[in-house]
Amino acid sequence: MDMDYMLDDGAWWRLLESVAACFDELTIIRGFQYYKQGRVEELALRDDGVHVDARVKDNRMYDVAVDLNDLAASECACSANRACTHMAASLMRYAELCGRPIQALANARSTLKSASSGGKLGVKSDGGRGEDRTGTQGAAADAPSRAGYGGEGMNRSAPTAFRSGRPTVTEVELTESPVAKWHERFQECSGPMHLHIRTAQEAGELLVELQAMRPVLPWALEQLYTLHAVLFVLERMVKPAQSNRAQSGLFMGYHTQHAIDGLRGQARSLLEDKLALADNSSAYWERLMETADFLRKNMMIEDKTIGCFSTLYSSLWLGWLGPGSAGNAPLYEEELRQLQAAEAELGPSLSRLPWILSQCLLLIYLSRDTEAQAMIARDGSKLMLKPEHLAPLLGVLERAGQWARLRDWLAETGPLLVGFRGDLAPYGDYWAVVVTQMPEAEPVMWRTLQEMLPFSRTVYEDALAAHGRWDRWIDLQMCMGQDPLSFLVTKLKPIEKEAPELLLPFYHQAVERYVLQKNRDGYKAAAKLLKRLSKLYARLKKGERWELFIAAFANRNSRLRALQEELRKGGLLS
Hints:
Residues 114-163 are annotated as: Disordered. This protein is mainly alpha-helical. The protein is 58% helix and 4% strand.
């Protein structure tokens, strides 16, 4: 314990109460992940003793300011701002420095419940390890520490002393039993209290119960167990929502959808960590293959509006079973056979989009691109592809630096995105990377984006601007009837600097449209744009031509008295 960090028993109790009140279970569990991964890179207690400043690394570095007297008033630089994962991780690091049991803080609700029902809140007798005077721990005190985050060789705490009657599992049982048996044991643990899970808090509480069932495990088995605990809870939420048409897709309750998203994110985070299995010689290899079977079966019958297990199936084959981990060609061939056999077995109930995309991922691993592209093209627009569907496939090629293959995939799949009215920027980003690495791919990019118009308009515009093709950019704006005044000045500034003459027809066309509106607003907009035109002519040193134009313009519209007034106000007429 750092002597600069002191926390008496009363303050510790109040902190536990505040954490239990301010944070939901999933946020606490994710905060524990971040703490174990060492993401709290800096932490300091201010001189007042009640404010803690920390820096937590996520997709970028976030500054956290914690008010120990009022957690609700604490702040973080992330989008959540309050009661977030970064704040939870900072509190756990602070508890560690104070010599307090992190597990008790990570399970604040269970710790308080255990203490209030007659147990002791471990604070002193063990020097900060969280044990009470009888040498046992709180009911769920060690659950997150055995959640499997932080890497091999982590100093994990001793097993929990379980409540009387609580189901438990052993390392031997988990090693020798199929994962279906694991889920049966999870069912025994969950009991009638968790028949219906609809919120993140209920999901988090069940996860804590499942984690408390097991002893300390070897790292690889711990990873598999933790994943299946999350999958069990996720399945209990997805299946009722999927069977009830009134709750499916867009009509799913907000809190249920929020909880499912959190669980899916947690499972993806687990699958992104390197699995501690090198090949099929491991004692746990069979459990890993059963995990693939579990996700495949759920993916192929999943409602397309949910897309939960299909995402996790892709993550499994991208992470734990990818070429850089435990995957290999014979494994991919066998998985392809399993997927292909499912078409005849499931018939019309087959969820076709994830079924096809899963095969394409495996075919990419096997360098059978032509076969994969033909499979996607066969169903074409029926698949209703989105950029997010293609991201796992394109991401594999990008990470491998296989630019020619990525170019071909972008060219083949781009036309299949025609009709998608959402954001195509992720697709355009792949083109930007390819052209940077492989300049000779630029003609293919222009041809593909042009064929996708008007749906690719934003991506096409951005590409034209990035490559300084201002003539085409202006032509596109004029064809689309765009309003020059709708653009920020900074957007047009590069053109004014590099090719100002290109703006002349764009501005002149817009001025005529404003005048044809025959109202005061139109005349004001016309006068505003005419002032820009006068500056452009001056920059181009064509002052005489401007004088001829503005005189002819004023004469032609001499009967429009309101327009004449606006021109005089703008100093365009004497």
